[in-house]
Amino acid sequence: GRIPLRYAVLMQMRFDGLLGFPGGFVDRRYWSLEDGLNRVLGLGLGCVRLTEADYLCSHLTEGPHRVVAHFYARQLTLEELHTIEISAVHSRDHGMEVMGMVRVPLYTQKDRMGGLPNFLANSFVGTAKFQLLFALKILNMVPEEKLAEAVAATQRPKKVAIDQAGGAA
Predict the structure, then answer these.
(1) Strand partners of residue 58
(2) If 0-12 CB within 10 Å is exposed, 13-18 middle and 19+ buried, where does residue 11 land?
(3) For residue range 10-28, what is the model confidence (pLDDT) as tens digits?
(4) Which residues pair with 59 in a beta bridge?
(5) What sign for the dihedral angle of Cα 36, 37, 41, 42?
(6) Any idea where the domains of the chain sit in the sequence?
(7) Which CATH code fits 9-155?
(8) Which InterPro entries would you find in this protein's record (predicted)?
(9) What would the pLDDT profile of 71-112 be if each residue is shown by its tens digit?
(10) How many Cα neighbours within 13 Å face the side chain of 158?
């Protein structure tokens, strides 16, 4: 109740400790992009269906395994969001590929590090961090100046970590 909930973004904590969005690989020989995505989401979330209208962007990942990451976003009611969070715990992949759902903190605390800046300091899989920042900006979920401040805060060394390193030497 201290921080008003205007928007919520769900991500997953993966088996490898990286944050990412629900989804998976789609073999275009057998499925359309949306049908394949909905099949994968059905296994992991069970109760959400995406369409072409939910498409936001695509990115080619760098590295030895080049993958095109298609990003979709869907506006839900708070009740639908709760249903997804509950059904995700009962999905086939929970506890094996997916360790749990995580709500992204869409605020910055007074110390200018707590909330979104600290969240952005986590490790993300592939293009997930870029996709998150893109969605927050394009969907106007976080004011652009606040988003820029959060990103900048993650790029500054933390004073506490520097003080601890100096004290340990």
Answers:
(1) 70
(2) buried
(3) 999 999 999 998 877 777 7
(4) 69
(5) negative
(6) 9-155
(7) 3.90.79.10
(8) NUDIX_hydrolase-like_dom_sf (IPR015797), NudT16 (IPR054754)
(9) 888 888 888 888 888 888 887 777 788 888 899 999 988 888
(10) 12
Q: What is the DSSP string of 84-110?
A: HHHHHHTSTTBTTTEEEEEEPP-SB-T
Calpha distance 153→114 (Å, rounded) = 10
Tell which phi-psi region holds residue 22, choosing left (phi > 0), alpha (psi between -120 and 50) or beta.
Answer: beta
Residue type at 30 in one-letter notation = Y
Nearest-angstrom CA–CA distance, 17 and 4: 29
Radius of gyration of the chain (CA): 17
